[in-house]
Design goal:
By secondary structure, this protein is an alpha/beta fold. It is built from eleven helices and twelve strands.
Amino acid sequence: MTDDPLLSVQDLRTWFHTDEGLLKAVDGVSFDLKRGETLGLVGESGSGKSVTNLSILNLVPPPGRIAGGRVLFHGQDLLGMPGGAIRAIRGDRIAMIFQDPMTSLNPFLRISTQMMEPLMLHQGLGRRLAKARAIEMLQLAGIPGAERRIEQYPHQFSGGMRQRVMIAMALSCNPEILIADEPTSALDVTIQAQILDLIKDLTQRLGTAVILITHSLGVVAGICDTLCVMYAGRIVERGPTGEVFESPRHPYTQGLIRSVPRLDRKNQFVSCIPEGDTEKGPERLASIPGQPPNVIDLPECCPFHPRCGQAMDLCRRRYPPATEPGEGRLVQCWLYPEEAGHER
């Protein structure tokens, strides 16, 4: 058994050349994914989470292009593979669940056709065995009456059931890696919990490694082993999930965690207290001031400094180096230059 990572993303850069300027959607992202590990990518909309994972499978739509970096899967660079080789990996050894199952499933084809196709293509199964495997996966995904429902169309399923179909389809070929891009964003809260439990249960049962993309820290807290926090196309903090929650280093991570409602605190949802009111009363939820930056032609400084209460002059002039405040931890912030031997 080797300790080498199953997937190693190294200095990945994905840029979009637009009429307004150069948009660096992903700008130097690096992380490793181990066998059986669940890694969470967290950040606000536009931080580069989804583009990172589209880049892994070389699915970036134009005018985007991968400007640099490597994605090593079993030591082979996926970005340097010819089209036929990478297509043989997509949907088989690396599978992906997209945000909206209604746009991912073909509305004109029965579920049976859509589930059997990858099994016949990647696994070489005949129609009878492919259908039996598809029904088995639907049953594992918690869809009642799978033998009957597999012949139905996507519009005959609820949103939660369509997402279960997508999970069953993605895992049907026993992939080594599952990429889940906001798999619960279009679902109500009760269904979200069921879908997350299903992903956790099935991937643990099959030994599948997972990359989970989300904007919700509550989601990663219960399912992810490792947490990567993204901001403006870069990973600003990385580490074991429990450690990051217990001792967040980057001011952005600290702000995200403070903004999560706590069950051990009362009246957190009341936000009508006047500014400056010091009387004892309901507690406000914390929030991060300002707006995410426009990532077109970003200057080479810390993009979070306009929103950061701890910003220094150096933050406005140069981007901070990566430092390692502990084993398995990484943070990019000028508050910790001494830990990497840098001076302010």
